Amino acid sequence: MPANIAQSSAxxxxxxxxxxxxxxxxxxxxxxxxxxFELRAGEILAVVGDNGAGKSTLIKALTGALHPTSxxxxxxxxxxxxxxxxxxRYAGIETVYQDLAVAPALDxxxxxxxxxxxxxxxxxxxxxRRLDKTRMREEARRVMDELQFRLPAIDNPVEMLSGGQRxxxxxxxxxxxxxxxxxxxxxxxxxxxxxxxxxxxxIRSIRSRGLPVVLxxxxxxxxxxxxxxxxxxxxxxxxxxxxxxxxxxxxxxxxMTGAATA
Length: 262
Fold this sequence. Notes:
By secondary structure, the protein is α/β, with parallel strands linked by helices. Helix content is 32%, strand content 24%. The protein has a six-stranded mixed sheet, sandwiched between helices. A four-stranded antiparallel sheet has the order 2-1-4-5, with helices on one face.
């Protein structure tokens, strides 16, 4: 293992999602330049880097939102070729984006099942497409209870929720349907201190359910509070993978900016 790849107690853990030598070019511009990436079972892996470092491009490549120019992506050790984000979702990868993608006028349960609504059994569901709202509300309450996230009544519209509560709905939806892993893009952006704390607890709850998490964040205190390992991007490349135990926040920032190497 290269010296700049941190050793950890999870070093022998199963690799759930992996990228090998991924390149993405746009004409003469190289956004990703031979990036490697490994997400291990049961961990929270933070992805950090300055603006333009390639974080978003890497995540889009991993989730099918764009197609790499070259390189290989593997899920549970098997090569995958996602044609789009829906393919990644069908494979068990859920992503929570900054814009949340919630429908404010719909209630909490409807948002959790948005695009994957449950139908009533029998002909009423199969032919007349009647929604099983009772079962969706029950499932919504169950997942919220498991995540220990307190919300108003499940039938309240999302537009009545605070920013942190809306983020909680988006995170709960990912936890409900993810089978392999959850990716979170700046989940605490624009949230207050109290709401940020709630979202961080949600992320821990997801990990405790057995799902590894990829956390993209500029918030270094949050990263060091949550992450088992930190994947540092710089100029379209993986500069290092470190841990909060071996490197300080100043060390990580120095690697991000090129002032130091791991």
